[in-house]
Design goal:
This protein is mainly beta. The protein is 7% helix and 37% strand. A four-stranded antiparallel beta sheet has the order 1-2-3-4, with no helix packed on it. It has a four-stranded antiparallel beta sheet with strand order 5-6-7-8, covered by helices on one side. The termini are close together. The N terminus and C terminus are likely disordered.
Length: 429
Amino acid sequence: MVVGYYVIRDIGMGLGNALKGISLSLDVHQNPSLYGMDMAFSPHGSKAYVTVPSRDLLEVFDVHTGTILARISTGQTPTGLAVNPDGSQVWVVDTSVRSILDSVNSSSDKANGSVSVISTRTSKVIRTIPVGIGPIDVAFSPSGATAYVTVNGVVGSGYVSVIDTSTFRTIANIVPSLASLASAPTATASATSLTMRTTGALCPSGVPDYCWYPTSVAVTPGGKEVWVSEASTVAGHSSIAASLPGVVPYPDYVYVFSTTSYKQLASIRVGNGPYFMTMSRDGSYVYVAAKAGCEMDQISTATLAVVATVQTPASYGCPFGVAAGTSNSIAYSVTGNDRTVDVGSEGDVLEVVNFATGLVNVHGGVGTDPVTVSVSPSNGLIYVVDAKSPAIVGLSPVSYAPVSILHVSIQRAATIHGSSDKSSAIRKR
């Protein structure tokens, strides 16, 4: 998930050498995500796991009572998370914003994010896995044998890290085929020889379009495909590209890869700025929230093509976090921006998108900067995480009125209380 470094990445990569010697700074204890970011549930919905980036914490809630059962110290600025299929572990992505800033300021690629592997039985970190610069999201294969982590790159091209969950070792890094990257941009580019980098190395000089910045990830229920959204730097955002001579904005893509060969199966053009996507409950569709394009796209996993596009009302903000509804025609999105993603319009509502009718219903009362939306597996309540206020709002799936509130802690210290409940992720943002 995003924790304030998209802006850093856009500046660092988009302006390239022009920014050498200019120092960047960000107070991660005040901005962004002061109180919460991403959320996952236990299989019966009795517990919720919430990452708190500015405090380097994972908090565990009893959903019924609102009690915080555990505060677990993680790596720097934890963002995305997922629970393995047997519920024994929570994997928390540590984006490490502070080390990214150091890397950008020193023009190096030495920043290193990680994944904190946490036991749901003991509420303790049992392993920390280094994965590269700017990791955001994580998803598991149905068997739980493999985890996929999007490594955004920030100061260089990104990749998807494939991790063997039995050894906690990276066994492959997935990148798109060069041909698909070369066909995407409409910006003019030199005849520079292009090579996809898989170590966070700098992108080809003068050709920022050819770097790949994966954001969210999902695996099909059968485990044969891994789906990855990507949000481009500079050339993908017209507001930034307009100030750069020779750079023309272009739409973004969702990529599909084989989980056995890691080969690219498809690149599917979607709206601009698809930071997050989610898969329908039966795996028939993927829903993509295009923040910069202010649209929601529905992709068929059978045909690998967009089957419906719904333009969302910019006056209420453009979609960011996304979750699947109970019906394959319904998706939920929230319109905050974590106060750092300076594309699309910022809003404070939940949008219920109906792909069958093309209609969007807008509902307020979800905080001032809603960035994550999740659906409880037990009672169907729709939970919205507000990055600005210390609360997570539970909404009725019928009236969409607030019916429950979880109060996120503002403490920094980790106080551990053991928990034996097994858990699993319901949706991927």
